[in-house]
Structures are given as structure tokens and as C-alpha cells.
Amino acid sequence: MHLGPRIAVVGTSGAGKTTLAARLAGLLHCPHVELDAFQHGPNWAQATVEELRERTDRATAGDRWVSDGNYEAVRDLTWGRADQLVWLDYERPLIMVRVVRRSVWRALTRKPMWNDNREDWRSWADAEHPIRWAWSTHGERRAKYLRLLRQPEFAHLEVVRLRHPRETRRLLAAASASS
């Protein structure tokens, strides 16, 4: 499989978007655009829509990049400019194992994320915490992506829908072989 010069990686929280996008960007020798880093400022301050759009616009203006994230406010920029959309469409049980494991690891290690923010187990009850978010949006996001991908403004995208981690490993192997 040939990977295009501009790739948007999407999927529900915990699917592995950032990990995959970073690996693809490394293999393809192009910038990795992590939308969460644009959205979550220091002390979890949230970017305004204008700030998020400005940052994303700058980062995706080039000829080559791999982005990850699901922000509707910048979908026209990421999807509109991308050549390919890689959709991590894994089943809910796998997503939940991954997102819980990731949250536990982040809370225990206190490893910094974007802009020196850190996971705090006390936030796990929040409706917007990735664990709850992944559970509540999984089916809705799948249906939404199916609808969106039928819209004319996204007809230019070559969609690579990965439903199992072994398919993702095959994609990475193909990207590695062609780089």
C-alpha cells in the first residue's frame, strides 16, 4: 500500500491514534501533528476554537504531515487537506482495555503529556475523561464517520479502515518497507 503525503489518523479515544500517527510520521519522514497538543494547554487550559484552528491551519499547510485527532472544529482542515484517512475502528472491548491501561499507566507514572499536563485518577469520574468518553462515544463515532465519509467534501480521501491491530501492524510493515 502506498501512503500519501498527508494522512489524517482518526478513531475513538484509546484506539492508538497518536502512537500510529507518530510511527507513520517517523517512517515517512514528515511532521507529526498531534491535535491534542494544540487543544490542551498548560494546566489543562482548553484552546479556543480560533486558537485550535490557527494552530492546525499552520501545521497542516505543508505538503507532508500525519495528524491524529477527532476535533470537529478542524475537520475541514485535516480531512479536507489529507490524501488519506486512516481510521482505527477497533471493537469496544479492545478500546476499553487500551484506554484503561493507558490511564492507569499515566496516573501511576505521572508521565507528562501535552504541555506538561498529567493524568490524575481523580478525574476518572468526569464525563470527558478518556475512559468514559471512549465508552460513551464508541458507537456514535463509528456511525458518524460512516456518514461523514459519504459526504462530497471528503470524496477525495482514500480511506484505510483498520478493524484489528494486526491490520495496523500490516500497514506499518508496508510503510516501513516503502520508506
* Structural category: alpha/beta
What count of domains describes the coordinates? 1
The major β-sheet equals: 5 strands, parallel
Number of strands: 5
- Strand line-up in the sheet with most strands: 2-3-1-4-5
Mean pLDDT score = 92
Helix content: 40-55%
CATH architectural grouping: 3-Layer(aba) Sandwich
The amount of beta strand, in percent, is: 5-15%
Indicate the radius of gyration in whole angstroms: 16 Å
CATH homologous superfamily assignment: P-loop containing nucleotide triphosphate hydrolases
Under CATH, the topology is which? Rossmann fold
- Label the overall shape: globular
Low-pLDDT segments, ≥5 res: none
What is the top-level CATH class? Alpha Beta
- Number of helices, where a helix is a run of at least 4 consecutive DSSP H or I residues: 7
What does this structure look like?
The protein is an alpha/beta fold and 179 residues long. The chain has one domain (6-178): P-loop containing nucleotide triphosphate hydrolases (Rossmann fold, 3-Layer(aba) Sandwich), CATH 3.40.50.300. The chain is built from seven helices and five strands, in the order E-H-E-H-H-E-H-E-H-H-E-H. Strands 2-3-1-4-5 form a five-stranded parallel sheet, sandwiched between helices. The chain is globular, with a radius of gyration of 16 Å. The mean pLDDT is 92.
